[in-house]
Amino acid sequence: MLLPPCLVLAVSTLPFVVSAIPALRTSQWPIQIPEEDIRLSQSNRVMEQNDTICDAGSKQWSGTVNLGKGRDMFFWYFESLSHPKDDPLIIWLNGGPGASSMLGSFYEIGACLVDKTQNSTYRNPNSWTNLANIVFIDQPIGTGFSYTEDRKLWAQTLQDATLDFDKFLDGFFALFPQLDNGKRDVHFVGESFGGQYAPHYAAATRRDFASIILINPWIDPVYHVLARWEHICASGKDYMHFNQTLCVHMEEGYSTCETHGNECQLTQNPSICLEAFNVCLSGIQKWVEMGMEHRDWYDDRNKCLKPEDCDSGFSPVRRYLDSDSVKKALGLKSSFKYDPMNEAFNEKWTNGVDATVPSTRQIATLLDAKDTKVLILNGNNDISVPTASLVRTLDNLPWSKHAAYLTKKLSPWYYKDSSGSQQLGGELKQVGNLALVTVNNAGHMNVHDQPIATLSILQKWLKSRKLSVE
């Protein structure tokens, strides 16, 4: 589970086309590889990986950055397949909270994807390493390969996690100084609850990023719940066959939820936002849950007749990365248990003070005070984070170009599929530093569901950070 369900344009019509995969280049700098077990604390560790675990086609390293005794933050870094010396760096975070970023690597956009039937991996032809160097980070402490049994060592709040992440970047760039030379673009990606992580971390750090990219982001919890009525009952998705009586009940609770949500957005007060969220749970969410039997919260096209039908890649990633061969390659003891979702961490954070407060102030800070480009991609089939909620949140976002953004219309965007045919990808609009891209036929993990389409957007974004004509 990525998020608990209870929480939980004037644009050029030219297609955005992915260029052919460039030839592999060799590593552009030497890395000194220590032989010690990377789980030892009090120092940073890095291990070069061969193609046994992942035939990436480029150099790759795994390791940890130590943040204090018993607090080691794990990363897996892959060089670009193109020009690793010059290509941008992408920092990737999954959400949860408590989800491992190895899901992003081995199920979504990484160099290798897990074969669900063979418990092995295969080269991903649509990997983002075609365009950039990428580091996947298991964070906060307590997540994925950054797991520790001592819960007192886990990050307790977003503020704790922000401090940890900033310290991690210092340690990571000390291991790979050529990535932090002041000339290379660094892009920061957050998926799902990464819509909280990335804005908070980027707004608070002394570092500047070329852009922030948010994928089906958990930005405003109240608005996400509010928009589920629109997604399920008022969007023309007849194939969902949702009970109309339940839709009537949801509509009756809409205005009260909206009023409380607006107060939360205005004040950003944790107590007010929690109250608003609870109002929306009773007025809308409880009716949604009554009609969700065998439906996938993260992709309304799916039927969940068996648990593995709708587990968003957790089962195959867990099986593969928890195998003895992988743990040995990573320098881990066989007794270490890898889990792509720390349910205890998830429960702790979703019941914490940060759970219901929007990250809109942090996004506004990035857009204006830090002059950072922000791209949001949202799959149109996601029930947990409906596209309508992102449209509403961004249209109401208080920033310097609010009026211009609000009045601009969404326009279609296109891409070429694997056969070279032009396809409608969704809709898009951009004003100044802010861009929203909706993705057709895609759920919560839209970059997994539409890899060619979203890679075409990424290619254009990395090149110019401009997707539409203003």
UniProtKB/TrEMBL annotation:
This is Carboxypeptidase Y. Belongs to the peptidase S10 family. InterPro entries: AB_hydrolase_fold (IPR029058), Peptidase_S10 (IPR001563). The keyword Repressor does not apply. One of its GO terms (biological process) is proteolysis. The keyword tRNA-binding does not apply. Residues 1-20 form the signal peptide. Gene3D superfamilies: 1.10.287.410, alpha/beta hydrolase. GO terms for molecular function: serine-type carboxypeptidase activity. Keywords: Carboxypeptidase, Glycoprotein, Hydrolase, Protease, Signal. SUPFAM superfamilies: alpha/beta-Hydrolases. It comes from Microthyrium microscopicum. It comes from the Eukaryota.
